[in-house]
Each structure stands twice: as structure tokens, then as C-alpha cells.
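Homework help board

Subject: predicted structure for assignment chain

Our instructor gave us this sequence and asked us to write out the predicted structure in C-alpha cell form, then describe one feature. I got the C-alpha cells but I'm not sure how to describe them. Can anyone check?
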Amino acid sequence: MSAGVGLAVAVGLTGVLAILVYVFIVAVWISALDSSIRVNRQEKVKPVGEKRQLT
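My C-alpha cell output:
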């Protein structure tokens, strides 16, 4: 019986760890998306003559 309880605790901890990793990945993705949106807004605000030229 104690082996079953240990296994249940291990699975429970693994589930919590998986959720924490998922939340971390989503937070990083949202941060990157927000950063990308801010950069795009800054580029649109610049006058036409100041656009970066591709080399």
C-alpha cells in the first residue's frame, strides 16, 4: 500500500511540475508577443524617411 501512495505522490508532483513548466512557457510566449507588438508599433510611428534600409 505504501508503494501505491508513493507512486500517487510522485505522479501528483509530476503533474504539478508539468503545469508549472506549461505556465512558464506560456508566460515567455506572451512576453515575446508583447515585445514584438511594441517593436512593430515603434516602426510604424517613424517618418517614412527614417525607415531602416536592408543591406
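Reply (TA_rk): Your C-alpha cells look well-formed. For the description, you could write something like this. The chain has a mean pLDDT of 75. That's the kind of observation they're looking for.
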